[in-house]
Specification:
The protein is of the alpha/beta class and about 325 residues long. The protein contains twelve helices and ten strands. Helices cover about 45% and strands about 10% of the residues. The longest helix is centred in the middle third of the chain and has 20 residues, at about 130-150.
Amino acid sequence: MKCNRCRGSAVVEVRRHNAAYCKGCFVHVFREQVKRAIKQHDMVRIDDRILVAVSGGKDSLALWDVLLELGYDAAGLYLGLGIGDYSGRSGEVTKAFAAGRGAELIVIDLERDYGFDIPTAGRKGSRSTCAVCGLSKRYVFNRAALEGGFDVIATGHNLDDEAATLLGNTLRWQTGYMARQSPALPGKDGMVKKVKPLFRLSELETAAYAFLRGIDYVVEECPLVAGNTQLRYKDAMNAIEARSPGTKAQFFLGYLERGRPLFTAADDAELSACERCGQPTTGRFCAFCRARAQVVGERLGAPMEDRDVASELADEVMPAEIYGGSP
């Protein structure tokens, strides 16, 4: 195969574009797609402080790498979830990436800092393991961004993630979630702006970028993810994509252009301060405070002055009752 840009020997084939690229040209095209996404949705400015949510996987590390190469002030945030060897390896890979690039990395540990880990939450809480994991991530990312003075939170959600999420929301006709599904969610009422600069790039493309850039990443899936509904939607989209390359892009990018404007998000919910942590919620207590209290066995109704932990807690401020969506 010949590279479509320089006619050299190609090393990566992108079937949905009916194109192939050499190493240098693919890296260039990948970065250009990120730049296009950022410009199209006004995600970040060059003087913004960006907090990249990193897990040790290919997508988040590829995103961090691109943002640094493009000259953005991008720090990483790694959240230790307490999932045995998987979390141990993820943390090591993330720390090595940051050290190799001289980049700032914030490390937070759920068990150390909040008194529980994800396996325990999955056993003791009423939420599924994946649900409480996503809730905890959103909470910690937003709190760290607020406390650190960051302007934007960037996550590594790729085209496959977004297409699978849209498929699930469409099959269940969750029109509120569909209206809110966007590559960029504005900051409001204590919620830091959240962006997804990789939404134009597939999972295979981010894997190819990470490999060509020599990025070491955790290949294994989370051992707790078996049976996750999102994976079934991904499998369904992959089956269609294999027969009709470009379907994922047509589905999701077409929705953003022509479908999303038809839906209206119910963002007029009346918010009040969580009685535990003071962050915005639609009920007495925010989603994170409720979930954490259930897992660690605390009583939410206790007077604020009787709880030392109260001052340490902050809502993830993108709870399902306000924004919903994926982690």
